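Section 5.1 Outputs to date
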Amino acid sequence: MVQSAPRRGLPWVTAALLLLACGGRAMSHGDDGNEAGTSSSAGTNSAGGATGSGGATGSGGATGSGGATSTGGATSTGGKGGAPARCDAFVNESGPTILVQLTNGTQRQLYLGQRMAGCGVGSLFTVSDASGMALQGPQFCSSSCQDLALRSVVSCPPIACVVSSVVTLEPGESFTQEWHGVYLKNETLPAGCFPGSMGTACTRLAAIERGTYTFSASAAAGIDCSQFGGGCSSCLADSNGACVTYGAVVTGSSLSVQASVLLDPSYGVGPANDVVPVVGLTFKE
């Protein structure tokens, strides 16, 4: 069943900051289910990312939330006979926004997050296509085909991010993240669309097409704050539901859930759709 839901704002939380070196991977608070620059996570999505605090924004139209914005056709000189080479087929695309709602259907507390220290809450689900291939989301601080075609290679300055966080779900509670329906697609740029020294292989953000996709997530039985030198801080209410503990990772046994959904125009795949649909994942014993 397709549900409609308003877009949710994501809170800015003042917390300890973790300095990442150039080229490091950053996790966004809800970075849509794609593996959008995540450190190892329980239920980290490999496709497109969810959106939330602690997210990072990269060039090439890709955001930490997994969304992508096309900047228009890229034109490069150096085509055959000195004519401009059109590289429009390699620009980043925008996909549909879909809410993924994770619900605790058990009678005990469950914890959502990473098992190793990283940045933010991160993506709490993964998405696979009908063939079973996990869809990888946009990476922070990396250059896309569009960037290469425009001679605009992304630089990677040091950044600060909110340290690892864990969502606590009480029985019956839900937590929502966004997925922006894009994934990284391998491409080869033709002559005239790239600086010779940069090579021809690259990736671009491609929007998903109509089809069946499987959403998966994992919850843990416990929470651990010892990696950050002390006990857990208070669990702070989050506008996306439930509450979040900063400076923590998950631990203990896992409980998994998955659902296969036909993503079609009712989910915004195809013709424009003003309704933000919801994919529900409910943890059960």
